[in-house]
Write the structure tokens for this entry.
Amino acid sequence: MLTMRKGTRIRLNGWQQAAVAMGSAVGALLDPRRADLIAALGETTGKPAFEKALERMKRSPEGRAVLSERPRIISANVGHAWDLPENTFGAAYARFMGSRNFSPDDRPPVRFMETDELAYVAMRAREVHDLWHTLFGLPTNLIGESALKVIEFEQMLLPMCLMSVLGGTARFNEKQRLLFYQHYFPWALRAGIKCTDLMCIYYERHFHEDLEDVRKRWGIIRAPNAV
């Protein structure tokens, strides 16, 4: 039997966790647009990675502030970004979201984490995804998403990220495959290692700052302009 924790949270035993992970992996490969399946795969295979991210955040002053205040990247909290000066990080994020008709409220809830702290870390990792797109200047096409998953894997060591890269590149045509492995893959390997620990940043406190300044401070290498 599955037992509910904290609303939509579900406690799984070992066999149930493996079954959900396997089913989510197969479903996500068949339909990569299923964010709920990708989220379930990340949760059921990523507990050790989220535990390590939690420990790193606890050792970082800014990370500790995030854990203490538990900010959510949702419309009610980040709507002011649309009113910030054009050069700011927040305005760049607003342009990224607005130009694609994305909403920060579209992320699926965390269901399979055992503790409130781990559930928050998993949710935070999910919600900062579009901020990382903004910082690295990556598009949301198949190449851009695959490149960001390389960076996410280097930052978080989530198995789901590695599986997403393998699944994404398997769908490349020949031209995309050449472009990815000649330009984006080596860039992503370098960018993911060079930048700071991106889970330890209280992004909302930096929305008013110049985009290029925060990129420099956090060691962000922008994506190649090859797409």
